[in-house]
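[[Encoded backbone]]
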Amino acid sequence: MKRYSTSLFFLILFISVFASAQTNQEINYDSDRTLKNEQRYPGALILSKVDNQVYFDHDGIEVWCDNAVFYKEANFFKAYGNIRMQQGDSVRMTSNYAEYNGDTEFAFASGKVKMTRPQTTLETDSLFFDRIKQQAYYRSGGKVTDTASVLTSTIGRYFMEEDKYSFVNNVVVTNPEYKINSEQLDFYSESGHAYLYGPSTIVSETSTVYCERGFYDTRADNGYFVKNSQINYDNRILKGDSLYFNRKNSFASATNNIRVIDTINDSRVSGHYAEVYRDKDSVFITKKALAASLQDRDTLFIHSDTIMITGKPEKRILRGFYDVRIFKEDQTGENTMSGRSDSIYSNQQSGLTKLINISRKANGKPVLWSAENQITGDSIHLQSNPKTEQLDSLLVFDNAFLIQKDSIEGYNQLKGKILTGYFRENELYEVVIDKNTETLNYMRNSENELIGINKTLASSIRILFADQQIEDIYYYNQVDGNLTPEADFPPNARKLQGFNWRGEERILSKEGLFEGKPEPELTRIKGIPLPDEPEEFFDEREEDDLLLDENSRLNPKVLKNRKVDTLKIKSEKILDSLKVETSRKADSVNTIPQKKDN
């Protein structure tokens, strides 16, 4: 066991030494002219271009420049003039100045820095490049040009293995069709996918998207947004727990706790799933769909399984399908109106609303309550004034039936083929019933004592209301009826044929619109993960463990993690030291033909 442990120790030691030797290999170089100037650059070689540029090669990275100061013993160089750096076939960089430490494989470039990758080009005034981490980093402002967009930020970090940029602080993505502003954005070059974090907007001529966490495909022009997200169109605002947006198709959808706000018509629709087609000016809402519109300071609510709204702002048409429920309440809370039907059609321009039974189901027959008055028929039309939005009149077609509960017992009933009602200040004050009319009324004196039951037939009747109660009834043509004492009126004859009191269905509040309906099962939202928190670019190091050599032009304090700075390096006057006559052999170390530029 002891021998095995000792062998293992030496094996690990050998691997460590071998790996260290592999990492810290020497920098190779070629130069047309190689000089020494111990006074100005102790221990350094001064390399310069004559016909060919100075050339460096180290562990897969190649550098070309016009002039360089090379500290051979330190395995470190500083390069000047027309610098080109290349790593394999995937990374190319140009700059005015650069430094490179062969031991730490850490580089710095400044002055019109441009790094080119197959899909993107990065431009900045100063760039750090860690070859071991395979990461590039700037914090003095940069611009990345993609095949579809231009991205700028104060701070940027590029992860070569993932082909990902992480932009922070004043992030802007400019595209011919839109502009993105974000606090933080992760961008994948190969796919063009962008992940947005923090308050972010996507602004175009036709829409504005806001989110605090989102995804956007910059090439396919579609996105997915969560956390306080909303899409603003010209006259609509779409909100929801999650939003999908497709710019090319002018389409957006929302899932869970959605709201669609019509900013022009002062109306909104809510539910748990919605689709918006901008070019068609249409909205589709389902899962507890509820439309609400302000009418003359009162709010009209419409609920159904599905709601569709189409048309331009001044010509909106609302359609509701299946189990439609409506509720309207004035500011006092006393004058209410509610109703039910199979389907609903409402035209904003004409002010016409239709309650209809397109499925022909028995429980889909329209019913309307105006205060204590129940009105039913095969279809009910409500007419509003398009300008004031106040109720003007109603029409009931076929099998019209009006029922009002008597103040003490029984039901007052009026029926016929067609019913016309008139409103004043949104309150029903007159009803006319035509063709084959019948009435059954409980007649009372001034002290509210029952004096008899009146059952009458006529061609038409006219009813006047006071405070929503029947006050007077006028009979016209072929009147046939009489007043019968209650004791002489059989109980089984006190309901006209077709009588159907639906008072238990009456909606008395906004909450009643959903009474008896199960809560919809919400879709599970696919979240967007939070951004990775990578280690600091400049790792904490000992004071004598420098990323760049002590001869670097950078102050060691620069190689610390901090928010923002500018690292524009002024060109160093090294040309004077290179203007040395060729006859001065003492300064000359060697003159080696350089490798040709590739």
Remarks:
- The chain has two helices and 37 strands.
- Helices lie at 2-23, 575-578.
- The CA atoms of residues 36 and 45 lie 5 Å apart.
- The first strand starts at residue 28 and ends at 30.
